[in-house]
């Protein structure tokens, strides 16, 4: 074998460089740049949403644990076993004990029923405790100290340094509780709280065998150690675990927002994937002759793979850099509206968004790009001079689809919302494609002008191609509508459940004698308030004569409503904010021993209209017949009840009264005056919580709007890609029309008619599909009542026609340009 000449050596050294230049030119001039745009969009969206969801989840966990004052809490009706403390110490967990009990507090002038929290000096393990005296603020309770909630100073008529007796112990008032992490938002179970040290419990003598005492053990540590302590100590009767998932009023809002984030991410990936597949198929169709020519010149399949691999590597690298950069900026943009409620510093998002975005892009790109490229490389060399329409296809390439399918099975798991969405999209698209073909078939039977007749003939010539085009155009418009409608429905639901004028103060324990004067005082101060509700604590014990308490031996396995006393009320009419689902509430003169039941408890206990229920109030049994089932929105901060009786059932039983009202920021003096004028009435001030929730909803709404806009943009990109590729494929056909003598005007009218008709049909079908999918998601995924969107039936078809006509107008002149004489 002879040695290579210097010229051959130079050529060999220059081959990689020349190949790189060719690949770069092919990337930007060979229709690969739309593929890069689609990949960039996928990477950017996945990164931004994964990063935001990761931060939000960590923030939710931290905030939930701060409200708990620990990472995990064991609540028990019996003293904590020493063995549990030893196990926690062996695991390296930090723990703190607390004892809670109700008792009377006595000052020189007054007495008041209070809730005592006896804590250790290391309480709280999480969150902030602020105890304020005249000189400073401290964060720990020391032995011998007594800290009072602010309203106890007026209720007991004491000041700092005075003596208050709690049981047998006389303690000096150390100051007020300015802030504590543990919050309860149940207005029916509020007693003013005091903090003492665990060391002083014995001196009070208030904790006696058989008394109503609650013991709590707080834990802080890693998740695996918390799981180990839960496994070590199975729950006994009278015990329960509290974690961040079982606490927090805003959890449902955040959870739904997180669901929307995940769902929008999936829809954006679907649309970007469709764009990727379409652009890649178009690229391969334009490169068949190039590949055939290379094969005819002696290029091997291996060399062609090397040539294409270089292009794909450059494409993926550029897409990764651009996508991660845009995704990082997008994540910043998405959380800008949340700046006021996010902690500073933000929790680290970790490496998962970077890895997840690249992994998803690969899973999408491997089949999306790989399948058409494998088929491209199978193009025979003779294709350079003759199209091989019937050449065999490499069906083995479709095995690449197993990668994203397997990943979806692992990722989605038992996520009902995701599977419902994907299944719904597939079913709806198949039905709508068939429906579109039927409509086109019916239109062909009518008489039209020459241009429309030609357009209908062109559309109907290939049912499979037309059905695919209609399905693609419909799906892009439909997914675009789904993203925006879900956002609108979520925001509307949140606004209805917590309107801007929602009550933020509850007055409870109002005596029957005080009730008229109290309401008159509110009216005098022009404070909007609810009606007054009588409240009696009681239990449901029987259904149709069957004792509910004997059906389940273990009290902890019973429904929550059977394990505790509930709040009963009676009225002549049902509250206007409750919707009757079944039965009816009788007129006052016909209301005889009836009760209206909240739908949730009715479903759990199997109650229906006509059932006779047995109740017990202060050891006094009575019964009532279910006359209606009501839907109750527990999130609206209005007075709500499981059971509402007709007046004849309970009117003779002693009750206290409840009223809710709204206090604005400039009316603090009114609240203080009410506390002084009615010292026995308990005021539950929820203004801080209500404003926090309102702010959170406002900020989350902005983030969802930004996200929805991103989804809409990805949908528009898919529509534009679809139309441009379709128009590009029509170029040869337009040349044929001109060759046969068709005028430019006739061709334009035919194209306008064809695509305008398809846009109208696709727009209408997209509305039907979007309404169906959103209704299913809202009802079974987000558990909200479905809504009708009449404006969508006008806006989406109009927008579809406008978008299609705009894109055609930008391309038609270019398609006709080469035919000018």
TrEMBL record:
It is found in: Cell membrane. Coiled coil: none annotated. It comes from the Bacteria. It holds the Pfam family FtsX. Keywords: Cell membrane, Membrane, Transmembrane, Transmembrane helix. The keyword Transmembrane helix applies. This is ABC transporter permease. It comes from Photobacterium frigidiphilum.
């Amino acid at each position: 074998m002879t040695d290579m000449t210097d010229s051959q050596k130079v050529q060999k050294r220059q081959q990689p460089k020349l190949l790189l230049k060719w690949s770069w030119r092919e990337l930007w001039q060979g229709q690969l740049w739309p593929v890069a745009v689609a990949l960039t969009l996928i990477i950017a969206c996945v990164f931004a949403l994964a990063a935001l969801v990761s931060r939000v989840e960590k923030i939710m966990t931290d905030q939930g644990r701060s409200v708990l004052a620990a990472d995990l809490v064991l609540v028990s009706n019996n003293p904590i076993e020493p063995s549990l403390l030893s196990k926690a110490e062996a695991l390296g967990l930090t723990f703190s004990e607390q004892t809670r009990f109700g008792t009377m507090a006595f000052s020189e002038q007054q007495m008041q029923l209070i809730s005592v929290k006896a804590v250790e000096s290391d309480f709280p393990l999480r969150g902030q405790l602020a105890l304020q005296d005249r000189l400073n603020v401290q964060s720990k309770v020391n032995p011998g100290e007594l800290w009072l909630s602010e309203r106890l100073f007026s209720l007991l008529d004491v000041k700092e340094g005075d003596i208050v007796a709690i049981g047998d112990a006389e303690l000096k008032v150390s100051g007020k509780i300015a802030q504590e992490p543990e919050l309860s938002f149940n207005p029916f179970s509020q007693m003013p709280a005091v903090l003492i040290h665990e060391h002083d419990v014995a001196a009070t003598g208030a904790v006696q065998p058989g008394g109503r005492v609650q013991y709590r053990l707080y834990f802080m540590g890693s998740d695996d150690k918390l799981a180990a302590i839960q496994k070590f100590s199975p729950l006994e009767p009278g015990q329960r675990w509290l974690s961040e998932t079982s606490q927090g009023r805003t959890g449902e809002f955040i959870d739904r927002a997180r669901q929307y984030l995940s769902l929008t991410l999936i829809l954006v990936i679907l649309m970007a994937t469709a764009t990727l597949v379409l652009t890649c198929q178009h690229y391969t169709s334009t490169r068949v002759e190039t590949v055939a020519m290379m094969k005819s010149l002696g290029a091997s399949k291996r060399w062609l793979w090397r040539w294409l691999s270089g292009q794909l590597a450059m494409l993926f690298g550029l897409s990764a850099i651009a996508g991660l950069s845009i995704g990082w900026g997008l994540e910043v943009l998405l959380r800008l509206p949340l700046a006021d409620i996010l902690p500073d510093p933000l929790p680290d998002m970790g490496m998962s968004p970077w890895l997840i975005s690249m992994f998803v892009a690969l899973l999408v790109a491997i089949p999306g790009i790989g399948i058409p490229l494998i088929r491209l490389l199978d193009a025979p060399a003779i294709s350079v001079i003759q199209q091989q329409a019937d050449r065999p296809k490499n069906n083995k390439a479709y095995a690449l689809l197993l990668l994203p399918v397997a990943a979806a099975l692992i990722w989605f798991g038992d996520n009902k919302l995701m599977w419902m969405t994907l299944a719904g999209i597939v079913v709806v698209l198949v039905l709508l494609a068939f429906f579109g073909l039927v409509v086109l078939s019916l239109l062909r039977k009518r008489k039209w002008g020459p241009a429309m007749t030609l357009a209908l003939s062109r559309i109907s010539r290939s049912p499979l191609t037309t059905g695919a085009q209609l399905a693609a155009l419909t799906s892009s418009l439909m997914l675009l509508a789904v993203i925006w409608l879900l956002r609108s429905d979520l925001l509307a639901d949140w606004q209805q459940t917590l309107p801007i004028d929602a009550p933020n103060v509850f007055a409870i324990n109002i005596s029957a004698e005080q009730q008229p004067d109290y309401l008159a005082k509110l009216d005098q101060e022009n404070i909007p308030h609810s009606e007054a509700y009588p409240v009696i604590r009681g239990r449901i014990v029987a259904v149709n004569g069957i004792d509910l308490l004997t059906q389940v031996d273990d009290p902890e396995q019973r429904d929550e409503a059977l394990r505790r006393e509930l709040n009963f009320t009676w009225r002549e009419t049902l509250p206007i904010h409750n919707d009757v689902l079944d039965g009816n509430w009788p007129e006052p003169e016909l209301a005889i021993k009836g009760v209206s039941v909240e739908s949730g408890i009715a479903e759990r206990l199997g109650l229906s209209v006509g059932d006779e229920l047995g109740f017990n109030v202060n050891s006094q049994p009575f019964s009532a017949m279910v006359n209606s089932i009501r839907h109750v929105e527990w999130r609206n901060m209005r007075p709500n009840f499981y059971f509402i009786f007709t007046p004849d059932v309970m009117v003779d039983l002693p009750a206290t009264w409840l009223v809710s009202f709204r206090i604005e920021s400039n009316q603090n003096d009114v609240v203080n005056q009410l506390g002084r004028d009615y010292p026995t009435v308990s005021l539950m001030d929820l203004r801080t919580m209500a404003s926090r929730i309102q702010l959170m909803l406002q900020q989350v709404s902005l983030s969802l709007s930004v996200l929805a806009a991103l989804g809409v943009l990805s949908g528009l990109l898919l529509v534009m890609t679809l139309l441009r590729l379709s128009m590009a494929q029509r170029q040869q056909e337009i040349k044929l029309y001109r060759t046969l003598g068709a005028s430019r005007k006739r061709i334009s009218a035919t194209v306008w008619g064809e695509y305008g008709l398809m846009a109208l049909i696709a727009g209408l079908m997209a509305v039907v599909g979007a309404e169906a999918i959103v209704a299913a998601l809202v009802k079974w995924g987000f558990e909200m009542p479905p809504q009708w969107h009449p404006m969508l039936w006008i806006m989406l078809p109009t927008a579809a026609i406008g978008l299609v006509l705009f894109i055609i107008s930008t391309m038609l002149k270019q398609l006709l340009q080469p035919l000018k004489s």
